[in-house]
């Protein structure tokens, strides 16, 4: 008898647990800012590649459950020197924070700079 009650309880719990995701809140988080900048310079030997990547990421104090992503690619191939400059500004705000706990935004600046002084001289 006890074994039948245990089996019935497990079966009932399994049936009810399939409905739980539908009545619980979805996952939410603070705001996330992602910036990916790629600079590639393949230039002549004895020349220079100046690569600058300036990123400014800002979020409002109460930002919640929003995100922004920026990507950029700069490529140079040639025998001479090169200046690659990139300026990126991101701002995100809004959302409704049900927790009442203010958390700082997550900022992910990814900077990839490739400098290859191997282009043949002419």
Describe the model.
This protein is of the alpha/beta class and 122 residues long. It has one domain (24-119). 16% of the residues lie in helices and 49% in strands. It is built from 2 helices and 5 strands; from the N terminus they run ααβββββ. It has helices at residues 2-17, 20-23, and strands at residues 32-44, 49-59, 67-77, 82-92, 106-119. The strands form 2 sheets. Strands 3-1-5 form a 3-stranded parallel β-sheet, with no helix packed on it. A two-stranded parallel ribbon has the order 2-4. It is rod-shaped. The model has no long low-confidence stretch (mean pLDDT 84).
What's the structural blueprint in terms of helices and strands?
Blueprint: H1 2-17, H2 20-23, E1 32-44, E2 49-59, E3 67-77, E4 82-92, E5 106-119
Parallel strand pairs: 1-3, 1-5, 2-4
